[in-house]
Specification:
Length: 434
C-alpha cells in the first residue's frame, strides 16, 4: 500500500491510499515563502518547470525557472530559484544567475555520492569578450557543495562558440567528475554530443559525437532529449528519421577504447502484448524511461503504438498506446516483461520516468490522458519489472504544462514536483510512502 502527502505550496498535505484510490486531507502550513521582486527581476512570484533531487542528507531540493523574468542575452540576472526542505519546512535558499533561458530548452539536476549538486541548463547569449553580435545556445552548469545554499559557476562547455544546443542531461561520475549529454545542431541536422566536466578543476573534455559510429543516418534526422543512465556505459538516444519514425538507440561507452557503440532497441519477441495478448509489432514513441538493475543489466519502459492499420505514424491524427517494460537479456537483446499502465484502452501517454533502487525495485511515472485531461500517473514494480502495481494518479487537477520531475527519497519514499499554471505558475510537491 502506498500513501502520499503533498505540499501544494500554501495548500495542504494530501493522503492517498493505493488500495482504495481515495484522497484524505490533512492541514499543513504553507511551504514556500513569498517571492519579492528584486532590482534586476521583473516578476518573481511565479516559478515553473521544476527539477528535483536530494542533497547529501536526503532532503529534497527543487530548482525552478522564474516566470517572465527571462534575463538578458547580454547580462546575467537571477532567473532560477532553489528551494529545499529542512526539518519539515520548505525554504527558498538561493538564486542562480543566468543569461536568457527557457525551460523548454532543457535542464537537468543531479546529486553525486558526495552530496554535491550539479545543475545544467541551456542559455542563449550574444557575443563574447569581443562583443561579436551573434546568437548561441550553450550548455551552462553550476554546482553546490552545501546542499544548494551557494552555487559556483562551472566553465561553459562551448566557451563563446556559436551553435544550437539543447536538452542537457547530466550524470555523476567518481572523483567530482560529471558527464553531460546534449543535442547539437539545427532541426533535421541534429546529433547527440557528450563531454566530461571536472567541477574541481573547472575543465571540460573536448566534446565527443556519440553517434559517430551510427550508420544509415538520413538528412532528416531529428533528436529528442537523451536519457542518461550513468557516466560510464549507457545513455538512451531517441531518434526520428524518415524511414523509421520512432527508433530507440542505446549508446554504450567502451572505457578501454574510449569509443561509443550504438545499438538499436531490438526486441526478442516479434509481437507486443496487451494484457498478455499478442497484438502486433510496435514502434517505441517519442519518450521512454531507462534504469539499471543491481546485476548491471538495463530495464526500459516505452510507450508504444501498434503499427497494424496505420499507414504512416508520422501522419496519424493521434498517437496512442500502452506502456510496456523490457529487460535486457545476457545477449544484449530486450525481452518483453509486462504492461505498466493498467488502462484497458489505449491513450495518449508521454514524458516517461523510470527510477531503480539497489534492491532492483522500479518506480515509473508518466503523463496520461485516459480521463481526457493530462495527469501524472505512477506505478511500482517490486521485482525488476516483471509485475507492476495498480496505477496511482498523483495529480488532483489536470496539468496545463508537461513540466514535472520525480526522485527517490530515503526510506523508500518517492517525491514529485510539477508546475501549476492555475496558481500563478507555482510548483506543487507530493510524496509517496509505501
Amino acid at each position: 500500500m502506498w500513501s502520499s502527502k503533498g505540499h501544494i505550496l500554501y495548500i495542504t498535505i494530501l493522503g492517498l491510499f493505493l488500495s482504495s484510490c481515495t484522497w484524505t486531507q490533512k492541514p499543513e502550513k504553507h511551504i514556500l515563502p513569498e517571492h519579492k521582486p528584486g532590482k534586476t527581476q521583473i516578476v518573481t512570484e511565479s516559478i515553473y518547470s521544476p527539477s528535483i533531487t536530494t542533497d547529501g542528507r536526503g532532503n529534497p531540493v527543487i530548482i525552478g525557472f522564474v516566470y517572465r523574468s527571462f534575463p538578458s542575452s547580454m547580462e546575467k540576472a537571477p532567473g532560477l530559484k532553489v528551494f529545499k526542505r529542512e526539518n519539515g519546512n520548505w525554504l527558498h535558499v538561493s538564486d542562480i544567475k543566468t543569461y536568457c533561458t527557457y525551460s523548454a530548452w532543457g535542464h537537468s539536476l543531479k546529486v553525486n555520492s558526495s552530496g554535491e549538486l550539479c545543475f545544467a541548463w541551456t542559455v542563449q547569449n550574444y557575443g563574447g569578450k569581443d562583443k561579436i553580435r551573434w546568437s548561441a545556445k550553450r550548455i551552462a552548469t553550476v554546482f553546490s557543495s552545501d546542499g544548494g545554499r551557494t552555487w559556483k559557476r562551472g566553465c561553459d562547455v562551448h566557451e563563446w562558440k556559436s551553435g544550437q544546443r539543447r536538452k542537457p542531461k547530466i550524470v555523476p561520475a567518481p572523483g567530482g567528475i560529471w558527464r553531460v549529454f546534449w543535442i547539437e545542431g539545427r532541426r533535421n541536422e541534429e546529433t547527440t554530443m557528450t563531454s566530461l566536466w571536472d567541477m574541481r578543476k573547472l575543465t571540460w573534455q573536448a566534446p565527443e559525437n556519440v553517434e559517430k559510429t551510427l550508420t544509415g543516418k538520413s538528412e532528416g534526422t531529428m533528436r529528442v532529449a537523451p536519457i542518461a543512465i550513468n557516466s560510464r556505459t549507457y545513455a538512451l538516444i531517441e531518434t526520428m528519421v524518415e524511414n523509421a519514425p520512432f527508433t530507440l538507440f542505446f549508446a554504450s561507452h567502451n572505457t578501454a577504447t574510449s569509443t561509443w557503440k550504438i545499438e538499436p532497441f531490438t526486441r526478442k519477441n516479434k509481437y507486443c502484448r496487451v494484457n498478455g495478448e499478442k497484438k502486433g509489432d510496435i514502434y517505441p514513441l517519442m519518450d521512454a524511461g531507462l534504469a539499471t538493475l543491481p546485476d548491471g543489466r538495463l530495464v526500459t519502459i516505452v510507450c508504444s503504438i501498434m503499427t497494424v492499420g496505420l499507414t504512416s505514424i508520422m501522419t496519424a491524427p493521434e498517437i496512442k498506446g500502452h506502456i510496456f517494460s523490457y529487460r535486457q537479456t545476457e545477449d544484449g537483446r530486450w525481452l518483453w516483461q509486462n504492461q505498466v499502465d493498467d488502462d484497458p484502452k489505449i491513450s495518449d501517454r508521454s514524458h516517461l520516468r523510470l527510477l531503480g533502487d539497489a534492491q532492483g525495485r522500479l518506480y515509473a511515472s508518466w503523463l496520461d490522458r485516459r480521463e481526457g485531461e493530462e495527469h501524472i500517473y505512477f506505478s511500482y514494480s517490486p521485482d525488476s519489472g516483471k509485475t507492476w502495481t495498480e496505477n496511482l494518479k498523483i495529480t488532483e487537477e489536470a496539468l496545463k504544462t508537461p513540466d514535472y520531475d520525480m526522485c527517490l527519497l530515503p526510506g523508500g519514499k518517492v517525491a514529485f514536483a510539477w508546475s501549476d499554471l492555475k496558481k500563478k505558475n507555482l510548483i506543487n510537491y507530493r510524496e509517496l510512502q509505501k
